[in-house]
Amino acid sequence: MILTVATTPFEGQKPGTSGLRKKVPVFAEPHYAENFIQSIFDSLEGFQGQTLVIGGDGRYFNKDVIQTAIRMAAANGFGRVMVGQNGLLSTPAASNLIRKYKAFGGIILSASHNPGGPDGDFGIKYNAGNGGPAPEKLTDAIYARTKTISSYRITTSPDVDLGRIGETRLGSMVVEVVDPVTDYAQLMQALFDFDAIRALIATGFTMKFDAMGAITGPYAQRILEDMLGFPKGTVMNGTPLPDFGGHHPDPNLVHAKELVDLVMPEGGPDFGAASDGDGDRNLIIGRGMYVTPSDSLAILAANATLTPGYRQGLSGIARSMPTSCAADRVAEKLKIGCYETPTGWKFFGNLLDAGMATLCGEESFGTGSNHVREKDGLWAVLMWLNILAKRRESVADIVTGHWAAFGRNFYSRHDYEEVDAEAANGLMQALREKLPSLAGQNGIATADDFAYDDPVDGSRTTKQGIRLIFADGSRIIYRLSGTGTAGATLRVYIERYEPHAGFHGVETQQALSDLIALSRSIAEIEQRTGRAAPTVIT
Ligand code: VG1
Ligand code: CO
After folding, report:
1. Are residues 244 and 130 in the same domain?
2. Are residues 326 and 399 part of one domain?
3. Is 22 helix (H, G, I), strand (E, B) or coil?
4. Residues 33, 148: one domain?
5. Other residues' Cβ atoms within 10 Å of the Cβ of residue 332
6. Is the ipTM of this complex over 0.90?
């Protein structure tokens, strides 16, 4: 039976950088998730009888909202729902299913790298038929709808058994439970030279992959251990848990410390990698060498033709604005297009769909390509493995060799987390007002608030971050996070280009120390937020 349930709008159901994210107790309020899901459906047209992909990263509350989403999809007229077994799908795997099976779209239940559990975060995002995050136009429409919604539709049917693979019916809708890994693993096999990686393993090459108690465990075990033949135990924290086993599933040097401590010292494995809550981020380290995500994008681009999926070369490279300019130098050398977009994967969709970019990346541990329309953690790991298998050099040698050829973009992001929202907004506003007077001082050549004109659909997105660009190409960028659920997080991105190999060995914070000091004084960070130092440095 289909019910039409009366409801009233909730404040603040505004999708951020990547969907709607709130604390679990907020999502658990009666009608909260239902309102948002109905607002998504009300903003779409033409899905009657079509397929919807649904899956999540397995975090606390996933199991409940999945059942709600399935009932609402049936009540709203979808013809089929394709859902990962036990409700699990990594973000890139969901993107692949949408594309492969020509679904109308997908609903992904995840708060990505944010912690999970009863007091942790939860999230919902909608991906369109190209497999990518809903563009701004659609998220704006969804938000507008959340402010006027007065009812939602849902069936009264019992929970669907998501443990069993196969098809069942829910009214006139088919529910198809699929293995979450199989299609994704096939795609990876088509892109990368698994035989070459097996041959590398046969030389004694070792690695550790940290799934951080989140979604990539089953994917990594199947692909790295079962298919490629890395020994059992190569994947650590490989069981997806509702609270990620207490991990903060953000694969950076701070939160993936367990892995970093294993891989960095002499005698450790040759290669280390980690992914985040929903499987779209990646951390890459080699013995003694951490690869910044910005450098990783540049190195993958420079070596892409060593892999079967990219043997033909790249059409272009796109990076988010705060990501370092290392990839630009590779694009220049390859004589291919280079695009600078606002933060958030949704801005890459048009460039990928139009064939203008093949590889994309963000400084926030996100790398990906036109194989799906999301960033993809394991994809990046496999691309690195494929390149290592072909070059037979250490990660450290490949990275330092890249710097020697292209110069090094020293890069660091300083996060000031959970600062008072008013103070953070005040800081940004003051910077904006100061913009005209900043250029010409302290070696700053230009100062602006980044705006993006999409070259494909002509849409303009403004206020995407304050940029201070120095005469030597150095940059300081300020923006506020759009994924947090408490207070505001100020992100400060600092970059300096160093052409001379003799200076490439300097420690990053040291190499950037003057710019770091300037980033704090120009924005009056301590006076305005009370923070003398960042909470997380990556
Ligand atoms: C952060 C990152 C951004 C990334 C986004 C979603 O956003 O900076 O680059 O696309 O998270 O990633 P923000 O607005 O907090 O800076 V994920 O893996 O959380 O979906
Ligand atoms: Co993520």
Report:
1. no
2. yes
3. strand
4. yes
5. 12
6. yes
- Tokens at residue 483, please? 């994924």
> The CATH number of the domain where 421 resides is what?
3.30.310.50
Residues forming the active site:
112
Domain that holds residue 173: 2-179
- Nearest ligand to the CA of 278 is 2
Query: Model confidence over 289-307: pLDDT tens digits?
Result: 999 999 999 999 999 999 9
Distance 140 CA to ligand 1 centre (A): 18
Q: Following CA atoms 189, 193, 195, 199 in sequence, which dihedral angle do they give, to the nearest 10 degrees?
A: -140
Q: Are 314 and 304 in contact (CB under 8 A)?
A: yes
Residues 364 and 239 in one domain: yes
CATH number at residue 75: 3.40.120.10
pLDDT score of 485: 82
Which residues are CB-neighbours of 473 under 8 A, at least 6 positions away?
Answer: 325, 497
Sign of the dihedral defined by the CA atoms of residues 393, 398, 401, 406, in that order: positive
**What's residue 484's pLDDT?**
80
Residues 40 and 165 in one domain: yes
pLDDT confidence of residue 259: 96
Number of folded domains that form the chain: 3
**Of the residues 133, 157, 179, the one at which a domain ends:** 179
- Longest CA span, the chain: 72
φ/ψ of residue 146, rounded to 5 = -60, -20
Give the residue, out of 14, 18, 90, 379, with the most ligand 1 atoms within 8 A of its beta carbon, to mutate for a pocket test.
18
From the CA of 478, the nearest ligand is 1
Question: Does the Cβ of 345 fall within 6 Å of ligand 1?
Answer: yes
pTM: 0.96
Residue nearest to atom 19 of ligand 1 (CA): 112
The pLDDT of 378-384, averaged and rounded, is 98
Q: 122 and 110 in one domain?
A: yes
Q: How far apart are CA 143 and CA 35, in angstroms?
A: 11
In this predicted model, what pLDDT tens digit does every residue of 480-524 receive, in sequence order? 998 888 889 999 999 999 999 999 999 999 999 999 999 999 999
For residues 218 and 327, state if they share a domain: yes
> Ligand 2 centroid to 279 CA: how many Å?
6
Residue after which a domain boundary falls, among 406, 433, 453? 406
Q: Please tell me whether residues 122 and 30 are part of one structural domain.
A: yes
- Confidence label for 478 from pLDDT (cuts 50, 70 and 90): very high
| CB proximity list for 489: less than 8 A, separation 6 or greater | 415, 416, 417, 418, 419, 424, 480, 481
Six token digits for residue 30: 């009666």
Distance CA(185)–CA(219), nearest Å, equals: 8
Q: What are phi and psi of 288, to 5 degrees?
A: 75, 5
Say if ligand 1 is within 6 A of residue 362 CB.
Answer: yes
Please, what is the angle between helix 395-406 and helix 293-303, to 10°? 80
The first and second tokens of residue 394, run together, are 């250490």
SS3 31: coil
